[in-house]
Write a structure and sequence with these properties.
mainly alpha; 73% helix; globular
């Protein structure tokens, strides 16, 4: 109950900090005209205030998903539809042109569609690798290694950092988390150390690759930063991972876990699917950077190759259990995540149509300053999911240089590590190690994680500023 109350307070506090000063100025400035602010007729409509309340309530459900088991996609989907219904009502009530309304919805559909198709392919490949036991084989080798805890601590962290740019940070964390849970039993403090390190490593590793984090992908697809220009974030990302890990390693014992026998082979075709996955990434880059076409077209080409290879694997299967059904794997896609993206994107775009994003942009980027705003937004992602924050900034479209977009990408990619609920990786591992890796356990390492976050930003300034 305390967790739910704190989440509720945090949502309203965040909204209040961003919006209340602007609301006050609108309420007091009775001589404000539509010419002074084109969204003023909608901002002062009671339906707009109701839209903000609906969004806040929906996000309380998102933040409390761990406690309530109420999937995060459900409240934001409902909120998205209600917010746009309120937008339409306010537009009609004010007698404004509805043609722009239809265009805004169409643009949002296009943005979501390109993101969804890209992620659908990426998730299908991850499911295929899981089905071919590629990750299980990796886990079995680690379990049989006989290394001591310190070596395993660095190995799982480094592997999370290296895998995350190719897979997504949540899948990487789950794979590494399964290794930890197989090695450590009945030691919650040690499990927490490993899990915090993995979450921080996976989030840092995803910050410099469009394939490692949704927010990085969104910036790339929006054309704000070219694919290879994200690589300047590699060293800051390493700093973000390495500094907290170096501090935490002092609390990791030198002893070794009991050696276990676990031999899980990669199924037939697993290595070829890895090669196809790398080829698909190359196709996505080629379509975006060279052909100047949306990257999801390259991803769909890769999906077609995977489906074709799946056909031959299915034909060659001697036993039913050796079969490989890609369409079946697509049924297992994380639809909750995709539908959550739908809800969040449409909620934010609806609030943007009402003018709230312009107000927040003026308050943040106009008064606080671009770099300070980006750093604060990154820190806020420890509490509020980084995807709606990044979509909000992209919708605001502030005038920022490439360095500043890279700073925002780094801050949002790594800021979620500050709290366990700040990223999909942390939330997933709290489920994997339920009762051992907890919100409060992660919170104890908050000062060290803040140090890594600040050091990463400082390194970006030093090397790329």
């Amino acid at each position: 109950m305390k967790y739910i109350k704190s989440a509720t307070a945090s949502v309203f506090a965040a909204l209040g900090i961003l919006l209340c000063p602007e609301f006050s100025s609108i309420a007091l400035a009775s001589d404000m005209t539509t010419e002074a602010h084109p969204y003023e007729p909608l901002l002062t409509h009671y339906a707009s205030y109701l839209a903000i309340i609906i969004f806040a309530i929906s996000y309380i459900f998102v933040l409390t998903e761990e406690k309530t088991s109420f999937r995060k996609s459900k409240p934001v989907m409902i909120a998205a539809a209600l917010i746009w219904a309120l937008v339409s009502y306010a537009v009609h009530d004010k007698g404004m042109d509805t043609e722009d309304l239809h265009e805004a919805v169409s643009e949002t559909i296009a943005e979501f569609g390109s993101l969804m198709l890209f992620l659908l392919v990426a998730m299908t490949y991850i499911s295929a690798l899981q089905e071919r036991q590629v990750f299980d084989a990796l886990r079995s080798k680690m379990v049989q290694s006989g290394w001591n805890y310190k070596r395993l601590f660095w190995a799982t962290g480094c592997m999370a950092f290296v895998l995350s740019p190719l897979a997504d940070n949540m899948t990487t964390s789950l794979v590494m988390g399964a290794i930890v849970m197989a090695l450590i039993k009945d030691d919650a403090k040690l499990v927490t150390l490993f899990m915090v390190n993995i979450v921080n490593a996976a989030n840092a590793g995803g910050a410099f690759s469009p394939f490692g984090d949704i927010t990085t992908l969104m910036v790339w697809q929006a054309g704000k930063v070219e694919f290879f220009d994200f690589l300047v974030l590699l060293i800051p990302s390493i700093v973000c991972f390495a500094i907290p890990a170096a501090f935490m390693t002092f609390w990791v014992p030198d002893t070794a876990p009991e050696k276990m026998v676990m031999n899980i082979p990669v199924k037939t075709g697993g290595k070829r699917i890895i090669a196809l996955g790398l080829m698909t990434i190359l196709c996505a880059i080629t379509f975006e950077q060279i052909l100047e076409l949306p990257s999801f077209l390259g991803m769909m080409l890769g999906l077609g190759l995977l489906l074709s290879y799946g056909y031959f694997l299915q034909r060659k299967a001697i036993r039913r259990e050796d079969g490989f059904d890609v369409f079946g794997l697509m049924d297992d896609t994380e639809w909750d995540t995709l539908l959550f993206f739908f809800g969040v994107i449409f909620c934010i775009s609806g609030l943007g149509y009402l003018g709230y994003l312009d107000l927040v942009s003026t308050h943040l980027y106009g008064e606080i300053g671009v770099n300070a705003a980006n750093i604060l937004i990154g820190a806020a992602s420890a509490l509020i999911d980084n995807i709606p924050l990044m979509f909000a900034v992209l919708s605001m479209n502030p005038d920022m240089s490439e360095f500043e977009w890279q700073l925002l990408t780094l801050a949002l990619g790594t800021g979620g590590s500050l709290l366990s609920i700040g990223s999909a990786a942390g939330v997933a591992l709290m489920g994997t190690a339920r009762g051992q890796y907890t919100f409060m356990g992660h919170l104890k390492w908050f000062p060290i994680l803040v140090l890594g976050y600040g050091a990463a930003i400082g390194t970006h300034y030093l090397l790329n500023g």
